[in-house]
Amino acid sequence: MRIDVITLFPGMFTGPLTESILQRAQDDGHLELNFHDLREFGIGSYRQVDDSPYGGGAGMVLKADVIVAALERVELEGEKRKKGKKREKGLKPHRIYLSPRGERLEQSKVEQIADKHEWLILLCGHYEGIDQRVIDGGWIDEEISIGDYVLTGGELPAMVLIDAVARHIPGVLGKEESAVEESFSEALDRKKEYPHYTRPEDFQGLKVPEVLLNGNHAEIDKWRSSQLS
Ligand code: SAM
Hints:
The structure is a single chain. By secondary structure, the chain is an alpha/beta fold. The chain folds into two domains: 165 residues, Alpha/beta knot, CATH 3.40.1280.10; 33 residues, tRNA(m1g37)methyltransferase, domain 2 (Trp Operon Repressor, Chain A, Orthogonal Bundle). The chain is built from six helices and nine strands, in the order E-H-E-E-E-H-E-H-E-H-E-H-E-E-H. A five-stranded parallel beta sheet has the order 2-1-6-5-7. The chain has a two-stranded antiparallel ribbon with strand order 3-4. Helix 3 crosses helix 5. The model has no long low-confidence stretch (mean pLDDT 95). It binds S-adenosylmethionine. The site of S-adenosylmethionine (SAM) has 19 residues, from strand 5.
């Protein structure tokens, strides 16, 4: 999967996306991440990206002309690169704006995105957000929120989305890290997972449930099902 991120702060993504499973996914070619500095599309010598809101009020709004220029450039460059390559799904990117006003991100949505799209463009807002005409004009396919609270920018939400989606790209998780039987997965009826234990068997008087020690897999499955919530 290819994911392009449009942000005013590309530096924020180093660290969370360059360690562990997500770095390995990139090294192995399962995931390609590209970051585009919105400032580069700013207007004039000051590279202006925002302006005060019509109607007054606090805060600044990211400009539609700047964002659309960035979205169109990223899309065009991506399409040029993709041409000639063997593709299984559509050539068009799925363009997501991270926004508190968007649809709340849930596991089923994560799976749907991973399954349906092989190219995402994520737009991170800042300040008061973006000019509504970017959405109304059809440059965004969907708005996604990571929860009912407000963050300073769309960078952390974009990282959350990337991490959650990447786990569902075939090959990203090793066998021992399978995403099939996890909290909110279809296999667990979208319920929260059962608890886990590892050695030692007795930790400061706290014992591992007996059923997990007897090797009876039918009993273990039954116990685990009973622990879903
Ligand atoms: N004025 C906006 C509102 O009241 O809905 C909040 C803007 S917020 C300070 C700046 C940016 O952070 C947003 O444009 C969005 O990209 C991002 N953001 C903040 N909270 C978010 C959330 N819960 N989910 C997704 N994106 C969020």
